[in-house]
Design brief:
With 510 residues, the chain is α/β, with parallel strands linked by helices. The chain has three domains: 207 residues, P-loop containing nucleotide triphosphate hydrolases (Rossmann fold, 3-Layer(aba) Sandwich), CATH 3.40.50.300; 67 residues, no CATH class; 179 residues, Nucleotidyltransferase, domain 5 (2-Layer Sandwich), CATH 3.30.420. Helices cover 36% and strands 19% of the residues. The chain contains 18 helices and 19 strands. An eight-stranded mixed β-sheet has the order 5-6-7-4-8-9-3-10, sandwiched between helices. A seven-stranded mixed β-sheet has the order 11-17-14-13-12-15-16. A hairpin with a 3-residue loop joins strand 5 and strand 6.
């Protein structure tokens, strides 16, 4: 280098003084001054280069810019650097190549920039040599949607959350193909969240969250309220938002200004329940961001907002009914609920239990609830080759007052009935925590065959909890729970439809 500045040996100094970025809004060049979030990630990449970093974030915090400039700086000042940027779409990768990576190198002082010789400079590859370096010591940064094999000095995956949720095969390819290429380099996943507690990315971070000693990596979370620009001078803060911020202050230990509350109120109105994905306040919020095609997420969010998901005291004098979904023992789900003064209080749930029918019924009895009706789905009365139905097996195990719900002609009838009754639900926040997460992640997907498009609920571990809850609605519709029981009233099967409004060639659900 022709610049005789001792500080050039310090990467932190270089990142604070040598580069420019585009100013948000008008796109004009401004000196890059790292924000605290960017500084924290720089520290990780410099001090802990071989420990993967998982960054879950709100939008507009500049993490992509910071990571791009770190790639630039490392490639310029380290011959032979091999960097890869993987993004959700090639258009996104190309934009980061042009607006961050190439722009960053072009912003270097002339004394440094003039020593750089570009061998390739296009939308997907930036390859160059510095000074007298020969082509065997060139540095390169790729911007693409996937990578496999080779050697990688730094792997930056942008928007892995949406990739994992919307394109699980590509997410798996990234983990099995691109991750090993960076086994001796730096690996950074930087993303907004999507997909709830499921998918390839969740499988990577869940062991870290639970403290598995074999899990690799550190999770960083950066919320919207870290952004000093997330303020609005005017607006109206509703009682619901006021209550939200009281709770948020308790969770975070932070004080929030009226300008921040105004900003959040406007964003919540604009984004609705997608605000948890785009502008989360806590990591817990981000992880419950609604999946594409979510069926019950909006209703559950409304229950949270109205204070109907909380650890309320259980009325031990009122009957407790159960609603079931049957399957392999690990997939069998049982919700416990009470009908009190027109409210459906869901107080408990059994799921992920790989136990026999005898042990399952014994567990129910050991809870000590005053038992009412036990609602089983239509297939409980089916007689398999063994000659004994599930209804018979459970009855022999000691489960009494069993009622089998008639089969509906279409699963969406039951779903619509369940949607209609959601305002009457209240969930015990602690006892039902995992079950609520499953309901949040219950979704449909659009399929097409023979020119006919339809929407079908996805059958996975989330659907078992949703199917069991749906039994409550179908039982009420069928009159299997007396309308006056514990002060409850019956409910009709109307309600909001969740099927897509526009599907090419859509002619019906079935």
């Amino acid at each position: 280098m022709t610049m005789d500045i001792p500080e050039l040996k310090d990467q932190r100094w270089r990142l604070r003084h040598l580069y420019s970025c585009r100013r948000e809004g008008d796109g004009n060049p401004i000196p890059f001054v790292p924000r605290p979030e960017q500084e924290q990630i720089f520290d990780h990449l410099i001090d802990r280069p071989h420990e993967p970093a998982y960054i879950i974030k709100s939008r507009r915090l500049g993490l992509s810019t910071g990571l791009g400039l770190f790639q630039d700086d490392s490639a310029v000042f380290n011959s032979g650097w091999r960097g890869i940027l993987i993004d959700q779409k090639q258009d996104d990768a190309t934009k980061k190549m042009a607006e961050i990576l190439r722009f960053g190198i072009d912003s270097l002082p002339p004394e440094i920039k003039d020593t750089i010789r570009f061998d390739k400079r296009n939308d997907s590859e930036l390859r160059f040599r510095v000074g007298d370096e020969d082509e065997n010591n060139d540095s390169v940064i790729f911007a693409t949607t996937g990578a496999r094999g080779g050697d990688c000095s730094m792997l930056h995956i942008s928007e892995m959350g949406p990739i994992a949720a919307l394109d699980p095969k590509r997410a798996e390819e990234i983990v099995t193909g691109a991750f090993p290429a960076a086994r001796l380099g730096r690996r950074v996943v930087e993303t907004t969240w999507m997909g709830g507690r499921s998918g390839e990315l969740w499988e990577l971070i869940e062991p870290i969250l639970t403290g598995n000693p074999n899990a690799e990596g550190i999770i960083y979370f950066f919320p919207w309220h870290d952004d000093p620009q997330a303020i609005r001078l005017d607006g109206m803060v509703t009682d619901e938002i006021k209550s939200y911020f009281i709770d948020l202050a308790e969770k975070t230990g932070k004080k929030f200004s009226e300008e921040q509350k105004n900003w959040y109120s406007a964003k919540k109105l604009e984004q609705r329940n997608k605000i948890y994905r785009e502008y989360p306040s806590t990591l817990e919020e981000a992880l419950r961001a609604p999946v594409e095609g979510a069926i019950y997420a909006e209703e559950i969010d409304a229950l949270r907002a109205s204070g109907k998901i909380l650890p309320f005291p259980i009325d031990r004098s009122s009957l407790v009914h159960t609603a079931w979904d049957l399957g392999a023992p690990i997939n069998t789900v049982t919700w416990y609920f009470q009908l009190i003064a027109g409210e459906i209080r869901v107080i408990d749930v059994d799921l992920d239990q790989s136990v026999s029918a005898v042990d399952r019924v014994a567990n129910i009895m050991n809870k000590g609830y005053p038992m009412g009706v036990n609602l089983l789905p239509h297939d409980a009365s089916s007689t398999p080759t063994s000659g004994r139905s599930t209804q018979d097996v459970l009855a022999d195990a000691g489960l009494g007052n069993i009622k089998v719900i008639p089969r509906t002609s279409d699963v969406w009838i039951g779903i619509d009935a369940c949607l209609a009754m959601f305002p009457r639900f209240a969930f015990h926040a602690e006892n039902c925590k995992v079950g609520i997460e499953r309901l949040d992640n219950y979704r449909f997907q659009a399929t097409s065959s023979g020119g006919i498009s339809k929407s079908e609920p996805v059958h996975d571990r989330n659907s078992h909890a949703a199917d069991a809850l749906r039994m409550i609605a179908e039982a009420m519709t069928a009159g299997l729970i007396p309308s006056g029981i514990n002060g409850s009233r019956g409910i009709s099967a109307g309600g909001r439809k969740v099927r897509p409004k526009v599907l090419t060639g859509y002619t019906g659900r079935r």
